[in-house]
Amino acid sequence: MSQARISIGSSSGYSAFEPGGGGWMNRPLRMPARRANRPISSLEAFELFEGIEEADRLAFERDCVWRDWKKGSTIIGRDSLGGLVYFVVAGRCRVTLRAGRRDVVLDEIGPGEMVGEISAIDGERRSAAVTASTATRTAEVGADRFMAFLLRHPPAALIVMRRLAQVIRQADAAILELSGLNAPARICVELMRRARVGGGLPPNAAQISPLPKHADIAMRAATTRETVVRTLSDLVQRGLLRRDTDRFVLPDVEALIRLTTTADEPSPGGTIDDGK
């Protein structure tokens, strides 16, 4: 199997394994301040508004529509028209693309992040669907108001440009994984995305807590739940995965990384089902 270079860091903002000069490190999620017993109705914590005069931010907030979404609600429909930009102030959302007969998770976004800016900029149909993974609160604003704000505040426009570059890199990584890695390798990559250091484990070990659902891993890896079950079982047999009461433990992260480039090769106890 040809070896493909892959990125296993998370681009969605939450802590994840990513290579650094001193080994593996955690990247923190940037969270907006919460007010007790009150729904969040401010965009102050968003990076887009750093350095912006309070009066300008408050004027922008007044032009927003604040909505609360139930878990499972469709916030943005795939191929839909509309230039609204959504700022996630509470909860989590899942961004999915259609790949053949399956939905593939492109990103998961949370408080302090926005979605929908691409269609607001180019006026085209939505390329992805966005659903609420949990109860979610958003602030939505029209494309004209959003673009006027960016034109008035070049530093904010630069932030959006960087965000769009991130989206392109995400899409490139997803295409590379789907075309260059088989299902077991993609599952390994997804496990590493979810992995965290700590928990009393040695430096080359990691944990995934709480235990992820097989269906969630399958959607992220663009495969079936059955393939996830088989692959996890194979990893247990290889000594690369251990299930505790409330977590997965990855005893040897480096070995798991190497496995992503050799997933087509026979294992000592048989083969990993490709499950493409």
UniProtKB/TrEMBL annotation:
Pfam families registered for this protein in UniProt = cNMP_binding (PF00027), HTH_Crp_2 (PF13545)
Where is each HTH crp-type domain found? 181-254
Instruction: Output one GO MF annotation.
Output: DNA binding
Keyword vocabulary terms for this entry: DNA-binding, Transcription, Transcription regulation
PROSITE patterns xrefs: CNMP_BINDING_3, HTH_CRP_2
Q: Which Gene3D superfamilies match?
A: Jelly Rolls, Winged helix-like DNA-binding domain superfamily/Winged helix DNA-binding domain
- Can you give the residue ranges of the Cyclic nucleotide-binding domain? 48-150
GO CC entries: cytosol
Query: Which top-level group of life is the source organism from?
Result: Bacteria
Name it: Crp/Fnr family transcriptional regulator
InterPro entries associated with the record: cNMP-bd_dom, cNMP-bd_dom_sf, Env_Response_Regulators, HTH_CRP, RmlC-like_jellyroll, WH-like_DNA-bd_sf, WH_DNA-bd_sf
Cross-referenced SMART domains, in alphabetical order? cNMP, HTH_CRP
**Record bears the keyword Hydrolase:** no
Where does the secretion signal sit in this chain?
none
Work out whether the entry's keyword set contains DNA-binding: yes
